[in-house]
Sequence to fold (394 residues):
Amino acid sequence: MMKLLSTVAACITLLLTASSCGNQNTISGLTEKDSSIPVTNLSANVQSSEESAEYEYTIQDVRNLRDFLLTRPTEEDLTGKPYDLNDDNRWDVFDLCLMKRELLYNMNTESDSNMLVIYFSRTGNTEKIAQYLIELTSADSYVIEAAVPYTDADIKYQDDTCRANKEQNDKTVRPEIANPIDSIDSYDTIFLGYPIWWGQEPRIIDTFLESYDFSDKTVIPFCTSGSSGIAASEKNIAELVPIGNQLEGRRFPASATKDDVKEWVEMLPLNNEQSEVKLLISVNGQELTASFADSTAAKELAEKLKTEPITVTLNEYGGFEKVGKLPWSLTRTDASTETEPCDIMLYQGNQMTIFYDSNSWSYTKLGHIDNTTQEELKALFGEGDITVTLSLKE
Ligand SMILES: Cc1cc2nc3c(=O)[nH]c(=O)nc-3n(C[C@H](O)[C@H](O)[C@H](O)COP(=O)(O)O)c2cc1C
Fold:
């Protein structure tokens, strides 16, 4: 019920917006069947309420109708689309409101997903990525809309005094959200998407983050930008509110394809099946079980071991580790690390190191051995070189 109310509130906001941000002619023109929209064209588009009753609306439909109402070019041919939801023989903002409500209703009633894709997108690039993500993961979705929508002038970043620039220059600004989601309690994993504005997340993302409790959530940021990376926004997000587990995010260019998004999603530890796969290390007749780290290299290692187990000779080094060359290089995301006993690290991109004591250096984490202590590991490894066989344990 609350969700319905917030949707209705969002619709009212949309109506107010339509008449307050320069679109008045378009919207009222449509309502009055202004000659700027050919009547024949409009009637070719309309459909009976029976047709719309059977149709399952998608976010793409919302985008289509929104663009149509704003007289923007639409991504799809809209001929015959069932967008006359209130059966008054025309398409207008009331149909858009009803469509959004139906979409949300379907999401809430039909889905048992524990994943939610949340995004803010002003010019549609992030929305496109989010849409791919939703299709690929069957996650629920929620679009952050500003209570005072961003007009074209508001985001004209060449103008120092435009609204977006002023907001980005002040870390304390929290633009109000038009349609706050009631609760995110039923979700474990939250994808959070946004455009990069001046190297960072738009302030409305901060409003969103500060409005809910993420302390037991997995949060995965993603963004689109002209060229800037995601790192600064990831850091801001991590520092703003407590987050249970913030996974490494991903920046996409506006031109990213569904395959690009798919490739990324497949590398994420999203479902139990993937996260429960363990690394089995056989050494001196004993088996050690390790959890994979949340790094690209660890996922690549798991992927490689799916084909066949490998045997690696590890040499004693420094009184704290055994290190040896892997048959291939893995992606380095090195960070200065104080290792712990039982950590498994990637060294220089193509060597694996198992620590039985600690050391400080720049490594990429591959995993951590779960079922042994430092003393047991030391005893098992002995003082010389060892040979280990790596495989997967489902
Ligand atoms: C106010 C503003 C600031 C921007 N700042 C950056 C930036 O610092 N770096 C960058 O690469 N792109 C920047 N962009 C470009 C957007 O990140 C890019 O167009 C993005 O894909 C827009 O996403 P959206 O369509 O979902 O709104 C900026 C755009 C705006 C409107």
In short: The longest strand covers residues 214-224.
